[in-house]
Amino acid sequence: MATDKINISKISPVLMAFFVMSFVDLVGIGVDRVSKDMSLSATVAQLIPSAAFLWFFILSVPVGVMQSRIGKRNMLNIGMGVTALGLLLPFLIYNFPMVLTGFALLGIGNTIVQVSANPLMVDVVPGNRASSFLSFSQFVKAIGSMIGAPLAAFFAAQFGDWKLLFLVFGIVSILTVVWLASSKIDETKIEGYKATFSSSFKLLGNNLVLLLVLAIFLVVGVDVGFNSNSGQFLIKQFGIDQTSAESGRSVYFLGRMVGTFAGAILLTKISSRKFYAWTSVLGILCLTIIVLIKSPVLAWGLVFMIGLAVANIWPLVFSIAMEKFPDKSNEVSGLVMMAISGGAVIPLMVGWVSDMSTIGLGMTILIACMIYLFGVSLYCLKK
Fold first, then answer.
1. DSSP assignment of 291-351, as one string?
2. Which helix (H) or strand (E) holds 362?
3. 3-class DSSP assignment, residue 249
4. Is 40 helix (H, G, I), strand (E, B) or coil?
5. What's the CA gap between 331 and 337, in Å, rounded?
6. Which of the chain's termini has less CB crowding within 10 Å, N or C?
């Protein structure tokens, strides 16, 4: 249940689950590395993030319903176990069908982790610190996302196999399951009430819920779309070599890491809704400028700023939803996580437009998504 004071022993294993949550961002590394290894087109390569993020649409609500019955911690451990399996499979058998299967399992596991970890974090922190800690949890997630590309490059250079990254992250997932299972955590439970499919989807009749769910769909689309397309974008738009372009992903996640850390501090002092609006504006400006310019030097700075802008939108939208509907936390969490399937749709759209025209034109899809997010932020300011 929500507490009045910070308990590090309860918060730490849940924060580690957010580090495990970051492993789904390996889709970006997968697109670049597997594309090179197997000579894939942009559209086919984008099947990798689609294979992972499609499961958010299929499983999020069922997981939310099941979670109300067996508990958040139990569901979270199941999710991290499936994540470990998804990571180990492509390490052991490396061909395109097994890569897609591995990323599908990674997506299934991550769906469960996302649905369970966010409301569990709300349970183990003081109620008035939920927004701040949800932003800090995204800072922890950003650390995992940021180190993926350098680790892949390190394993490739030192051991001749970038896929060792899958093995290391798989072991980390298993160890986190053990840590969380051995921790004492009190969860918020609504006695006599169980979430159902009907109670979950009925919430979509509420205009605010619908707007927020679509906002999550699009912000994840922007995040995964930029992650999975940034390498090819930097190569084709600015003539940057592949190794350097891959490091652009780390620059993006560095921006996200700095943004979430700063957000965790700033959100204790300023309105979360105003912060959401200003970061949306920053995202629109930076994405528009990077599509229009030709300077590689400016591009690196803008990649960082895009990460900074996107960093806090997800936890801000989630915290608004949880704040407005506290007695429907399992249903809201399931619907919001279902919307993470935007990571399956938006990158595929960017890849398809890039194949049909130019990758610069494809990236304008992300700008349109950010404009919607700004509109939702203005709506939330009035609520």
1. HH---HHHHHHHHHHHHHHHTTHHHHHHHHHHHH-GGGHHHHHHHHHHGGGHHHHHHHHHH
2. helix 359-381
3. helix
4. coil
5. 10
6. C
Residue of 121, 148, 342, 366 lying closest to 257 (CA atoms): 148
Q: Answer yes or no: pTM beyond 0.85.
A: no
Which DSSP letter does residue 270 get?
A: S
357: DSSP letter: S
Asked whether the beta carbons of 321 and 212 are under 8 A apart, the reply is yes
Residue written as token pair 């990158």: 347
DSSP assignments along 179-198, one per residue: HHHTS--PPP--TT----HH
pLDDT, tens only, 71-104: 889 999 999 999 999 999 999 999 999 999 999 9
Would you give the end-to-end CA distance of the chain in angstroms?
A: 27
pLDDT at 168: 96
Closest CA to 310 of 230, 253, 231: 253
Which of 108-112, 258-262, 276-280, 283-287 is least confident? 258-262
What backbone phi and psi angles, to 5 degrees, belong to 126? -60, 140
Only one residue has tokens 């490059």, namely 153
Domains in the chain (CATH in brackets) are: 8-183+194-381 (1.20.1250.20)
Of 223, 379, 383, 210, nearest to 312 by C-alpha is: 223
Q: How far, rounded to the nearest angstrom, does the alpha carbon of residue 307 sit from its chain's CA centroid?
A: 12
